[in-house]
Amino acid sequence: DSDLAVHKIQGDKLGFYSQLGYYGARPAYRQQGGEFFIFYYEQKQHWIDSRYFYGTSLFSKLVNEMDGYCLDEHNNWSFYNGSDLMYSEVLTANCSKIEDVCCKELRISSSNSDVIIDNESYYNNQSKDSLGDYKAIGVINGRFVYQKGNLDSFLEYGGKHWTVSSGVGQNSGHINHHGGSVCPVHIEKEWQISYTNADGDWEWKDDPFLKITCVKEITDTTPKQEHQDTGLVGQLYIQTEHAGQAGSYSAAPVVF
């Protein structure tokens, strides 16, 4: 899927952003709990991302080819695919609040959790303990980070992966998805769980029945835009829209 491909390549630059002043006579934004910026680049008359600061086009990976005052006026996005900038119909920018787009409470479950194959459980204890109900406790890398009760079990996005691990900031765990979405409940396939192979080494294996659902449904997911004389306010997110199912894979949620 094209939207999932964007997430796998440039997903760390997507997510929710908040306005942080102005640059190029237009609102400028920083990723919530992350390290990326979005701003208007006057020299090229388009909007770009930067890992470093406003005004630098070095290593820019996202481009919105339009010169409007507001980033979400028109979606004409391209992303760097490893060799060239490639136009994307699924990359979009909207003004929304993260709590109006992504669930604050969710459940991770799988019908494979009790399956026994050749006298061995499909799930090891660590992966099985990673299932359950989680609540949002903050925002990191432009996305909610979730915790299971008061336990050392966290669902977090980082390094282009959604991972359930025993500590925030870890790059390994027992449930994993490469790419994903801005909201984990929008991911419908390609989840993996950890297991130990015959040599005792940790590896990933697919669980096509793992799913993440909202515990409490969002009552209003309509993107909200508010404008004042001082410019755009609220949150902006860049997301991708899954063909035939809007918002199914938020590949370009630039939420400011």
Characterise the protein shown here.
- The chain is mainly beta.
- 7% of the residues lie in helices and 42% in strands.
- It has three helices and 23 strands.
- The strands form four sheets. Strands 1, 2, 3, 4, 5, 6, 7, 8, 22 and 23 form a ten-stranded mixed β-sheet that branches. A nine-stranded antiparallel β-sheet has the order 18-17-16-15-14-13-12-9-19. A two-stranded antiparallel ribbon has the order 10-11.
- Strand 6 (77-80) and strand 7 (85-87) form a beta hairpin.
- The model is unreliable at 223-234 and 242-256 (pLDDT under 50).
| Largest pleated sheet | 10 strands, mixed
Quaternary status of these chains?
A: single chain
Instruction: Provide the gyration radius in Å.
Output: 19 Å
Task: Report the total helices.
Answer: 3
Q: What is the β-strand count?
A: 23
The poorly predicted ranges are: 223-234, 242-256
Cα separation of the termini: 26 Å
Helix content: under 10%
Beta-strand proportion: 35-45%
Judging from the principal axes of the Cα atoms, what is the shape? elongated
SSE pattern, N- to C-terminal: HEEEEEEEEHEEEHEEEEEEEEEEEE
Question: What characteristics describe this protein?
Answer:
256 residues, mainly beta, ten-stranded mixed beta sheet, nine-stranded antiparallel beta sheet, 7% helix, elongated, disordered C terminus
Offer a quick outline of the entry.
It contains 3 helices and 23 strands. It is mainly β.
What is the element layout, followed by pairings?
Elements lengths: L1 H9 L4 E9 L2 E6 L5 E5 L4 E5 L11 E3 L12 E4 L4 E3 L3 E5 L2 H4 L3 E6 L5 E2 L2 E2 L3 H5 L2 E9 L2 E5 L6 E5 L2 E5 L9 E4 L13 E5 L5 E5 L3 E5 L11 E3 L2 E3 L1 E6 L13 E2 L1
Parallel strand pairs: 1-23
Antiparallel strand pairs: 1-2, 1-22, 2-3, 3-4, 4-5, 5-6, 6-7, 8-22, 9-12, 9-19, 10-11, 12-13, 13-14, 14-15, 15-16, 16-17, 17-18, 20-21
